[in-house]
Amino acid sequence: MRWLKKVFFQFWFTLFGWRTKGVVPDLKKYIIIVAPHTSNYDFFVGLAAKHILDIHSHFLAKNSLFRIPVVGWFLRSIGGHPVDRSRNTNMVDQVAEIYARRERFVITVTPEGTRSFQPKWKTGFYRIAEKANVPIVMVSFDYKKKLVEIKEPFLPAGDMDTDVEWIKSYYRGVTGKNPELGVR
Fold this sequence. Notes:
Layout: H1 2-15, E1 19-21, E2 29-35, H2 41-52, E3 58-62, H3 63-66, H4 69-77, E4 80-83, H5 91-101, E5 105-109, H6 124-132, E6 136-142, E7 147-150, H7 160-171
Parallel strand pairs: 1-7, 2-5, 2-6, 3-4, 3-5
Antiparallel strand pairs: 6-7
Helix pairs in contact: 1-2, 5-6
């Protein structure tokens, strides 16, 4: 069934002129960050890229989506985990514990945390990477170039402000579906 999904999504990518660039890391554990996140279309581009590149990644989504029976089942089947964003649940520690318990684990997050413009990113991805001692892999969806690009993994250096600014500098050159909401 996996090969059928891969063929289907590769056909979709080719039909709409999308391509991929970069290499999926040969690592058991890492965290993927995707930006800019400016549209609901990003989900479908990411889903296609995940299957084309055979990335076994999980993601977090607001728990209200999982309450809809068919939607909840579908999201779980493709690696979704519900998150209660209405209260502080110490998500960094919870995800770091998953990394500690599992031999293989990859999670994908959007540092902006929403599809609207966010000058200040959520830094949970960075704190998870530090706490779990896993590298960060930057992935971009460039709608202008119709390109999903995977960058080389890197370990946080311990200076979150400097590292996050360096990460954002890469994404400033990427055009999201709604460019006016992109990384600045």
